[in-house]
Amino acid sequence: MKMKTSRVVILMIIAVILAAYILFPFFLVVLNSFKTQSAIVSNPISAAGASVQQFLSNASSVINNKNFVFWHAFGSSALVTIISLFLLAVFGGMAAWVICRNKAKWSTVIYMVFISSMIIPFQVVMLPLIATFREVGKFVGLGMNGTLPGLIFAYCGFGGAMTVFILTGFIKGIPYELEEAAAIDGCSPEGTFFRIIFPLLKPTIVTVTILNGMWIWNDYLLPSILLGQNNPNKTLPVAVQAFVGSFVKSWDLILTAALLAMIPMIVIFLIAQKHIMDGMVQGAIK
Amino acid sequence: MNENTAGKKALSLVLLVLGVVLLALALWMDFTKTYIVIDMGVKVALRGLFLVLGALLILAGMYFFPTVMHHRTIINILFLFPLLFTFAVTVIIPMCVGIFYSFTDWNGVAYSKVVGFENYSAMFKDPAFMWSLLITVLFVIVNMVMVNLVAFLLALLCTTKLKGVGFFRAAYFLPNLIGGIVLGYIWQFIFSNVLTSIMNSPHSALASTNTAFIAIIVVYIWQYAGYIMLIYINGLATVPKDVLEAAQIDGADAMKTLFQIKIPMIAATFTICTFLTLTSAFKQFDVNLALTNGVGTVRGFMGQRLSNGTQMIALNIYNTAFARDQFGYAQAKAILFFIILACVSLVQVRISNKREVEM
Questions:
Q1: What is the pTM of this model?
Q2: CATH superfamily label, B121-358
Q3: Does position B359 have pLDDT exceeding 60, yes or no?
Q4: CB-CB under 8 Å, B174 with A26
Q5: Side-chain half-sphere of B258: how many Cα atoms within 13 Å?
Q6: Average pLDDT score, chain A
Q7: Which residues, including other chains, have CB under 8 Å from residue A1's CB and lie 6 or more apart?
Q8: Which of A7, A11, A114, A125 to mutate to test the interface with B (most CBs of B within 10 A)?
Q9: What is the pLDDT of residues B283-333, one digit of tens each?
Q10: Same domain, A74 and A213
Q11: Which of A1, B150, B203, B241 shows its CA 20 to 30 Å from the CA of A213?
């Protein structure tokens, strides 16, 4: 079907206007982080007073701010996200495989508990979670509240249900004969999983990792209540919140902080755009 | 082969015994309140170290246990253990404990008495909470309609044969990548500085309750529509080409094709998208916190003047606990929130399924 030229032009104009509208806030952030506070207040949409030196000065005062500590927060966020994603992929795959390959009552029950837990909003478990972590931490003698291992532990618990749900759907489609053949050749069950099933799971693991990664990297509430605003190991979203709280209406620094906090995600998006967009859709329709 | 089995057996037994001894030692230290802290870069309590090490050794001992018959069962347990353990500690136990705490005067650390349904009856007499509930429902309804409408139109635009469609898709999706806290502050800047400067008005949209509420909706649509758009694009791509061609040959125009073929054929996608927008709008917290922090005056609601005009239910629960220290009351609100969310999602899925079958 050939569209009329006039229609194409109109659609193109609409698309461009929409893109401009949607990208405008990003443009403003970039523009204004190159300016001083007084230049921003006098005219937030003109480039007057914008200079690279000013950006460097803004950035250095943001990075060295004791409430923000950009590199430290970035490191915490990266560490928590990467370790949680790795553990979720491995443990999730293991659990999903056991649930899928055992047609017994207990596996169905575990699966149903996982699925129904997905509807629980975080607010319901938020307050007792702190108490539970405190008690468990006290008993074990290792701190759970206020530490990154505790946070990673919590992400494994909260992300587990969705990970198992998506991976189970995929493992069901892998022919069982493959595992029988491996067993006949003398492969142990754990060997079968790690040498045959896990490598086959790769595309689904990518989907799960993207979904969990977007959530964990941007999550504010869980790290803010587990770590607290003044924790030296706070993650990026918590650091942004703590920083803004300390600099009421100092927009030059706030916008620079926002820009610095956005850059990692945007860089990853530019590299793996197709994977991320596909992953988000696949995760939603399953 | 035999030697191998014997070696394995010995190894397994040694590991199991060591594990049990360590666990027992840890428990003994717990009972006798022996508290030794060793410094290995980070301070680690010896008791905790023993406990964790003991548990790991027992798991390893189980793995090496030389049995052919029960090996599969052992593997099943070992494979399920990590995820089930974290899941139980972070979701199941807090959920059960939380239901209990909602009936007490819990203050976050301890409770002094069980108050029965007092927390639950109190919230229905609390104008601030009822207001939060009301605007959350309003927010959810408006968002469900608007996000889906905008996203569907964007999807239609992005499935035409425009040049650079890939770029537009990525651009529309971009806001979804950024966390709500950062977005909230960016938009706070736009509403209170940029728009006032462009329109030359001294009043920020965030200053009055009604416009601030609309502002939250605008930001939310901006953030979420791109994601829902991707799902619609995916749905539209599943409409078979030959059906569209047949419709064209039969003389259906673009509108007719849209309403009588495309929309009915992607009914399942509509279900998914309504479900997603519904649940995520209900749980909205980050943007609410960063954009308005719930502030806003309401002159008269249930005979009271309120100052939490734009506070959604999630933020209300958060503030009840952390700003006012009423943990038991906040927990009761959270349980009600859960019940509402569960009912609404169930009803929504029910209705959509029924409609899909009819179509």
A1: 0.87
A2: MetI-like (1.10.3720.10)
A3: no
A4: yes
A5: 10
A6: 86
A7: B248
A8: A125
A9: 889 999 888 888 888 887 777 788 888 899 999 999 988 888 888 999 999
A10: yes
A11: B150
